[in-house]
Design a protein that fits this description.
single chain; 418 residues; mainly alpha; 22 helices; metal ion binding; Squal_synth-like; transmembrane; membrane
Length: 418
């Protein structure tokens, strides 16, 4: 019955889940898969396995296409990230491994077989990945190697220290996510999928990554605490508690939420850069690939803002909501309307007594100025009565089926949970 109440409270989710399942995904997923790591030869992990077993590779003139380069970029960074995440590797081994990881791209036989991580296969099959890398055109190899080097050095730096200031928070997020945005942008431009300005404007590309990473860090407070990780900047949380873990104590919930709101306000400052970046994109595949994670992130921040549940469990957007965002975020006017909707949702929840309330209102005003509704997507949630009536009927009669359907779409909306 709880599931039924959830569907009845959001009938548009039912409609969009059905629309997605019955063909709507084709407008999003094939395009997104052509440039995302998840679409590379049936998925990043499967790509490594298939290549290792058969040696088969898509032969392309000139050392591979931009799409193929993005696939290899994904696998290289997945391998690097697996090293960083593996707590079984001693620091005296992990630090130099991260710093020198880019050099392994040119070592045909290098692999690491002692990882305990779930994604260890990318390290065990690294010779296959590095072979694919070496077959790319030099312009792609240079981008991937450069980003891998900078990211490895940055990851090693923050293994040995905690995030202290807000500047260091930006720096850490730059190393683990901003560089990904910069690397992808350079690949998009090098492949001529996008104009050269997309790859040259590293500040905007960096903001794309920072917004996603900060959203994950904010949302994952409790999970990180349980696993002994701390990514919230001390400069902020120390104004509210003696230890970061104290924010999870029930008696500290009021100040914990204030700290949460301040960090969300910080993350919102990247939204104007995101809108500028997306407005420059011309290739539909690239646009979908870049826009979908950003609208997932703004929806997640709206769900987390002023929400005590961040310190008690997991806050996630609904799967039907995620599917709706995926299908809607296919042009800049639609994305602006989505951003406007969710910052308005945050604005309505700003407590008058919140220490960051003025700053939150100011950043929302700047986002409003860039995303005032007026295009065809401004009223995107105004579905016709017949659709809503059908959705309500389906919710009442088929809620068990919809539960199964929701699980079936989970693989498509996993990005919204991460």
């Amino acid at each position: 019955m709880e599931l039924l109440r959830k569907w009845l409270g959001h009938p548009e989710d039912i409609y969009n889940l059905l629309r997605f399942k019955m063909g709507g995904y084709r407008a999003v997923m094939p395009r997104m898969d052509t440039v995302s790591g998840e679409g590379c030869a049936g998925g990043g992990m499967r790509f490594a396995v298939a290549s290792a077993r058969s040696g088969a590779r898509e032969e392309e003139e000139g050392g591979g296409t931009g799409i193929h380069a993005v696939c290899i970029f994904y696998l290289v960074l997945r391998a690097l990230d697996t090293v960083e995440d593996d707590m079984s590797i001693p620091l005296d081994v992990k630090v130099p491994m991260l710093q020198e990881f880019h050099s392994h791209l040119y070592q045909p036989d290098w692999k690491y077989t002692e990882s305990k991580e779930k994604d260890r296969q990318v390290l065990e099959d690294f010779p296959t990945i590095s072979m694919e890398f070496r077959n790319l055109s030099k312009v792609y190899r240079d981008v991937i190697s450069d980003i891998c080097h900078k990211m490895g050095v940055g990851m090693a730096e923050f293994l040995e220290k905690k995030v202290d200031s807000q500047h260091e928070w930006d720096k850490y997020c730059h190393y683990v996510a901003g560089l990904v945005g910069i690397g992808l942008s350079r690949l998009f431009s090098a492949s001529e999928l996008e104009d050269s300005i997309v790859g040259q404007d590293t500040d905007l590309a960096n903001s794309m990554g920072l917004f996603l990473q900060k959203t994950n860090i904010i949302r994952d407070y409790l999970e990180d605490q349980l696993e002994g990780r701390e990514f919230w900047p001390r400069e902020v949380w120390s104004r509210y508690a003696k230890k970061l873990s104290d924010l999870a104590k029930p008696e500290n919930i009021d100040v914990a939420v204030q700290c949460l709101n301040e960090l969300i306000t910080n993350a919102l400052h990247h939204v104007p850069d995101i809108l500028t970046y997306l407005s420059r994109l011309k290739n539909q595949s690239v646009f979908n690939f870049c826009a979908i994670p950003q609208v997932m992130a703004i929806a997640t921040l709206a769900a987390c803002y002023n929400n005590q549940q961040v310190f008690r469990g997991v806050v996630k957007i609904r799967k039907g909501q995620a599917v709706t965002l995926m299908m809607d975020a296919t042009n800049i006017q639609a994305v602006k309307a989505i951003m406007y909707q969710y910052v308005e949702e945050i604005y309505q929840k700003i407590p008058s007594t919140d220490p960051s309330s003025n700053k939150t209102q100011q950043v929302i005003a700047s986002i409003r100025a860039m995303s005032l509704p007026g295009g065809p997507m401004a009223s995107r949630h105004h579905y016709s009565p017949i659709y809503l009536s059908c959705a309500m009927l389906l919710a009442a009669l088929s809620w068990q089926y919809l539960s199964t359907l929701s699980k079936a779409t989970e693989e498509y909306v996993q990005a919204g949970d991460n």
